[in-house]
Amino acid sequence: MLPILISFRSWCGCFGGATNGAAVDKGLSKLLRRAAWLGLSLLLSVASLAQTQPDTLPQGRFLRQTAKVGELVEYELRYEHAPGLEVIFPDSAANYQPFEFVGKRYSPTRTRESRSLDRTVYRLRTFALDSVQRLSLPITVLRGRDTLAISSVPAQVRLVRTAPPVVPGQVPNLRQNLSMQPVEPQFNYPYWLAGAALLLGVAGGVVLGFRRKLRLRYRRYRLRKNHAYFLAQYARHVERFTLSRSLTNMERAITLWKNYLSNLENNAINSLTTREIVAHYQNDSDVRLALSLADRVIYGNQFSEDDTETDLAFVLLRDFADRQYTRVVANMVQP
Asked: Which keywords annotate this record (predicted)?
């Protein structure tokens, strides 16, 4: 191109002299600058095009040439590319039709001689009945904010039929198996949970509906047990006093009687004197006589040869406790 421009400049100099030659030189310089910019832009465009185009296509293949319905088959997808390229392989959300995704295993990227290799093996299965089934998976190349999807070359696998083909209009031969097969029993959680919820509901209804009656029965049960325990302990202290004639055993019997009545009637007679106790029970003759005999023996130290008085005091106190227990139980509020 340069010889053509020099010849053009010489031709113009022959017709126009020095003035025309200067104008021609100025025009040639502008033309050369434009040509340089055009060449540089062309080179950059070619380089950019070379970078955006993939150097190779993904390669996909089935590791077996045949497969059965529902049988696992492995599909290998590999891609060789430049080391600096970011590549994303399909995951479980990709479209594997006519196959179904089961799992996958991948190998780390291997780089040799300025070339990188990515490889993933997918575990698939199919329930389609086509004799030949094909699959093509795309990979995604990341370039900044842009993505480029590149599909692999379709690979195919041949379906092996396990049953003979059905002839149109002919009923196939059916086989039946009526033998019982062992089945492992399973725990029926829903029914058990429903039964437990129903039982809790019934129990809650019973408690809510009969809570006053149940509370009354429980209180009577506690009173009956406490009264039986009192009678047993009281009889033990009386027996020990009879055998040993010890004032300590008599004091223990009287103290037990006071504590029992305090718990039975919810009062504090165990802290009252004999006169105050007699007044509390409205001058009851049995209480007055029994406590007077007990005070004469304990505080006056007046033992008689005959045990009639002390035995009478113990009997009167026990009978009075029985009457008070019967009165408290009878006065309990009915539901």
From this structure: Membrane, Transmembrane, Transmembrane helix
